[in-house]
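SAMPLE LOG
Freezer: B-3
Tube label: C17
Construct: single chain, 92 aa
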Amino acid sequence: MRRMDERMKRGTKILKRMGRDGLLEDQKEACPDLYDMTVGHLFGDVWTRPHLDLRDRQLITLATNIALARTTGNHSHYHSALHIGITKYLFS
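STRUCTURE (predicted):
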């Protein structure tokens, strides 16, 4: 249980840096397991790996979503990109 608490803390910290704190509260209520996996594993483990900084991870995520023509999920990534200092000129 302690390992999960550390993962959740790291994930919550990354989400806050991205301007997304509180964004997943609906998910937490509707599907607690998915919330734990999203915050704990995706943001707590994957997004905190040392090889890429937060800006690079966000740019890669946006580029991948655009290349795959994803119609959902991009709004929060655009918001996060702007929040961490990626300028809107990169999107034009």
